[in-house]
UniProtKB/TrEMBL annotation:
Residue ranges of domain ChlI/MoxR AAA lid in the record: 238-310
InterPro entries associated with the record: ATPase_AAA-3, CbbQ/NirQ/NorQ/GpvN, ChlI/MoxR_AAA_lid, P-loop_NTPase
GO molecular function, one term: ATP binding
UniProt xrefs under Gene3D superfamilies: Magnesium chelatase subunit I, C-Terminal domain, P-loop containing nucleotide triphosphate hydrolases
SUPFAM superfamilies according to UniProt: P-loop containing nucleoside triphosphate hydrolases (SSF52540)
Keywords linked to the UniProt accession: ATP-binding, Nucleotide-binding
Similarity comment: family membership: Belongs to the MoxR family.
Entry protein name: MoxR-like ATPase
Amino acid sequence: MSENQQNHVSLHPAIEKLITNIETVVVGKTREIELSIVALLSGGHVLLEDVPGVGKTMLVRAMAKSIGADFKRIQFTPDLLPSDVTGVSVFNQKTMEFQFRKGPVMSHIVLADEINRTSPKTQAALLEALEEGSVTIDGETRMLQSPFLVMATQNPIEYSGTYPLPEAQLDRFLFKFRIGYPTKSEELDMLGRVEKHHPIENIQPVLSLEDILAMKKEAAEVTASEKVKEYIIDLVSATREHHNVSLGASPRASIALMSASQAYAYVQGRSYIIPDDVKYLAPYVLQHRIILHSDAKLSSTTNERVIKDIIEHISVPFGDK
């Protein structure tokens, strides 16, 4: 099946309406919008690695507005503190009590902009939120709102003054992908839309948070056959045995690939996963979860090439739902 699986005719009607609404702001990025929605429905998070100015922030803002969600942006800088992310307890002299002030992470959709520009200590403040959907401050655990989606960005070109994300942090992101530059026709369309005013100013919700929560429950009911589960395990296990890989994907990757496939199948209007769902999503789920041998890096081998090689050599089960 072609990588451009966004050209479907049987998308879930509500999802199709959501994608169309977001596309009034973000031009020509149907695949990236669809993947972001899959992350939202599966309870995962997204790492966007791309150069500035290609529409990462607009994608996140448009999604938040389209579902009426609380949206916060965190600009990660070297002097950012963990409490600037999670929140802090402040002593109120009038009431003589400590009052909690919520941090920006306590929102439905969070843009963690240039996440690799802050210290590892502050990066780690997101770990609990990404994995558990909660934050612990002064010994008290506070649950985050649902739905909850973090979309983090980092610049792949400029490494000066950055702190690379550790493996434990990368493993918490369901997907990693790039948005990429628009085509000439898409960029012309974009200029026409922003000529008088930016379309983000007028975008309106087409779904409610209650709709999203209901769809999350329905997506979790999507079934996976034993053959599909075995295919997922075969792909993940192959990352641990590949000759260019020093550290393969963990069992968390298997769980992530299945939950993403459930949500993706739901987006496509199905109640079951097909192997092509898994095959399509595997690069986005696995490429950031492996570490290559140093000699492989020296020979210009990339994570993307390794995952592509694995997908090509693992047989796909056919005739199975």
